[in-house]
């Protein structure tokens, strides 16, 4: 694991081992400075049969809004979720994480913060 990946996971308090952070940068969106992290979510073994013989078929890019202590600099995680087809059971799947629900762009941590308020 690279030191950049480890530092970003520590800063954002993300414990998922399947997420690999690659880079980060600042971007101005609607005259507000956003911090953007680029990451890839790697598919572990097939969720249906447990096979490791997977055929990769691109990525689904999801922009996840993430909870931060400093509200003046919002954080967005640009997560590339792997799409794969199992060669043994011929079923399609997409990598999933505890960071956000499937097909959702709001992190689960942000949802819990809103519900507690």
C-alpha-based Rg, rounded: 16 Å
Distance between the termini: 36 Å
Question: How many beta-strand segments?
Answer: 5
Quaternary assembly: single chain
Task: Describe this protein with a few key phrases.
5 strands; alpha+beta; 2 helices; five-stranded mixed beta sheet; 117 residues
Describe the structure.
The chain is α+β, with helices and mostly antiparallel strands. The chain has one domain (3-116). 16% of the residues lie in helices and 42% in strands. The chain contains two helices and five strands, in the order H-E-E-E-E-E-H. Strands 1, 2, 3, 4 and 5 form a five-stranded mixed beta sheet that branches. Strand 4 (75-86) and strand 5 (92-94) form a beta hairpin. The radius of gyration is 16 Å and the shape is elongated.
In brief:
The chain has one domain. Helices cover 16% and strands 42% of the residues.
SSE diagram, text form:
Elements: H1 3-12, E1 19-29, E2 32-41, E3 54-66, E4 75-86, E5 92-94, H2 108-116
Parallel strand pairs: 2-4
Antiparallel strand pairs: 1-2, 3-4, 4-5
